[in-house]
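User: Here's a chain of 419 residues. Predict its fold as tokens.
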Amino acid sequence: DYAIDIDGHRRYWSTNKYPLVDANGKTTAVVGLTRDVTELEEVEEELTQTQEYLQNILDNSPLIIITTDLEGKVVSFNPGAEKSLGYSAEEIKGMKANQLYHTPDERDRLLQRVLQDGAVSDYETYLVRKDGSEVPVSITLAQLKDYQGKVIGTVGMSRDIGHRKALFDQVMQSERLAAVGRLAAGVAHEINNPLAVIYEISEYLNELLEDDPKVKKELTLEEFTLNLPSILKQVKRCRVITSRLLNFSRKSEARVEITDVNASVKEVIPFLEKKANFASVKVHLDLAENLPQVQIEEMQLQEIFINLLNNGIQALQAKNGGNIWVRSFQKDEKVHVEFEDDGPGISKEVRGRLFDPFVTTKPAGEGTGLGLSICYGIVKRYDGQIAVESQPGKGARFSVILPRVKDGDRKPFYYKRND
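Assistant: Prediction complete.
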């Protein structure tokens, strides 16, 4: 192979030569066949440059990029992975990739989803470093194919979200405390009702005791027997209300629980009942029976429901009341919970940014713009979806969609949170 400059342009040539031999075996001539391989050389050069370019990206990317073969063994491990996980590429190649996951069977579940959907995007979990510590990551996992389209393994790209997660948890805690403040009036009303009953009964019993016990002994005993259970009942009611409030506001480890969606909806309604009545808002429940459970921390699911209900009530209050319909049902192996109102609706411009931080439809000073972004973050953490449908003047419908719990997924586990 050689190159010749022709009219200032370099052309590449490939020559094959072979002898011509007569009947006596004597070489009589040499034949040379030459062909222009300039385009082939240019393609090879471009491929080499592309490979070097891609390798440079892999070598300098802060992402954790890991490829595996069909047996799940690590084939490549970029410098970003080495830095984040503490392994060298040489020592980890050939090792099962599921050993890097928070739980080994978690990768197997992800691979099943890759087979079904072709890829998994932005799945949040933990990878285990060489020293045994854990790093929170957002993983995108896809099939790896050769030039013929044949699947030869998987490629996973993960981002270390430790800093983002810590910031998100702080913001979520701030929003939770703000929500507690918004609920304080309703909770005070809930507590004042049983306290008023306790006070009235206690005053009545005290008056009986102040009378001559010999004259009214039988009446006193009868009234005590009748009214003391009422006092105990109202005290327990107060205890339940305050317990709910404390659980909602408390910092805690994010436990992934097997949760009953319908029960969670019914439990949050009393928190906002007084506010809904004051705003002339009627809440209608249409909850499917025998609904599958979902795998999510119950307190965080309730936080989502409270936020969506509160937003609906505030939207309807601006138009002097209306209706909110809460529906639950199962569709395509997923559990859906819808919150629909007949309020003023949401404009197209705002609707496209509604789950972004600091976006709000409320008047200045009445909303932080963080509630829906917090809901979005919680739902995505548990591999779910949240969506909105709305047109100005025709109300809004928010849908929370979570994967149903299957028989093999009924093992609660924990997301460690650095609160």
